[in-house]
Amino acid sequence: MNIESIKLAMDLLYRKYLIPMILLDENGTWLHPESSWQTKKPISHYLEATDEQSVTLYHFGKYMLGCFQFQLEGQRFYLMVGPCGVIGTPENSCVFLGHEYHYNIHYSKEDKYSFEEYIQLVHTLFANQPLTQEQLRWHYQTEPGNRSIQTDFNLEANLYDRRVHESTFGSYHFELRYLDYIKRNEPEKVAWVFKKMKETYSVSLSPFELEGLKLKFSAFVAVVTRMSIDEGVPVNQAFGLSDSLIQGLIYIHTADECLRYIKEATYRFMELLHSYPFAQKSLLVKTIVNYIDGHLYEKITIDDLADITQKHKTHLCSQFKKEMDKTIHNYIQEKKIAEAKHLLLFTDHSYEKISTLLAFSSQSHFIQSFKKITGTTPKEFKNIHYAHALS
After folding, report:
1. Which GO terms describe its molecular function (predicted)?
2. Which of 102, 174, 323, 326 is spaced 20 to 30 A from 46 at the CA atom?
3. Structural domain spans, the chain
4. 3-144 maps to which CATH number?
5. Is the pTM for the entire model greater than 0.70?
6. SS3 letters for the chain?
7. Which of 136-140, 191-195, 387-391 has the least mean pLDDT?
């Protein structure tokens, strides 16, 4: 493949998927598509973050962006993919490199996983090399003043006391198969299920297809939320994701968007479920884990856990260590530091404020614990992972 073939492929892909791409040479000079635009914002920030072994991906809340480098005829080139809108967000335009893009005119909207698949397609085509999941490096970045409801950024901030009404899928056997695929973490079978989605749901729940799909989505969220809790996901985490996803429904305007959003929600629950692999743990350990995860902003003691489990301290400590391969104290510290990472990236809280919120004895104790677990100080972590989107 030569440079002209690359340009032709870019044009064909854009017509098909409506996801913009920019080809640049090793000096960052814009090669394709031809444009009279002069970038009002520096593009080097994105190019410098790339390497030959991975693809750098950015999630700005309302749009996504990818960037990678590849070799062609002995020369290095860069390809920027995006902006690509995010399903479930209300915005119909975005500003990138100082220019305004309009939804359905200049760009389309996809879920995170569809965007990853598109990146893998383009990388395989242009770099002549397939990507592994480990080579996709995501960076989540916020925009000052952006108050739109976004699933990733609002997960921890939602209320967890929503009452989920009893409701199931239209097909009982479909539901069983679908939930089994989620439990077994089989995304390829989930993709197959979505091809059969309209055939399976033949019962009309609404005079309008979109409203009917939204009702089915709510039923799906109710069922999968309960299943996730039964499989060991902390109650707060499960209902937090549930609330965030349901909030996003108000920004879905077509049946096609709704189906893609349901697929996105499925993958989100799969990620959540398999990040809490406690399905085989005892009820005692699940109870301890759920209590810890629901009280991260409080001081948690072994005495507290003994009271809520009605077990002797020695027994519960021994059983937890046996099943989790770590002490209760270490688990508490790891969970608090994980929460601290979220606060560092998605709030403006100071280190002192975060240490107080998470009930550390002092700011120095917080910093010491953070470095012990992550290998970096809170300041170093934030410098590495946090950046503001271009306005």
Report:
1. DNA-binding transcription factor activity; sequence-specific DNA binding
2. 102
3. 3-144, 155-274, 283-385
4. 3.30.450
5. no
6. CCHHHHHHHHHHHHHHHCCCEEEEECCCCEEECCCCCCCCCCCHHHHHCCECCEEEEEECCCEEEEEEEEEECCEEEEEEEEEEEECCCCCCEEEECCEEEEECCCECEECHHHHHHHHHHHHHHHCCCCCCHHHEEEEECECCCCCCCCHHHHHHHCCCCCCCCCCCCCCHHHHHHHHHHHHCCCHHHHHHHHHCHHHHCCCCCCCCHHHHHHHHHHHHHHHHHHHHHHCCCCHHHHHHHHHHHHHHHHHCCCHHHHHHHHHHHHHHHHHHHHCCCCCCCCHHHHHHHHHHHHCCCCCCCHHHHHHHHCCCHHHHHHHHHHHHCCCHHHHHHHHHHHHHHHHHHHCCCCHHHHHHHCCCCCHHHHHHHHHHHHCCCHHHHHHHHCCECCC
7. 387-391
Mean pLDDT of 38-66: 77
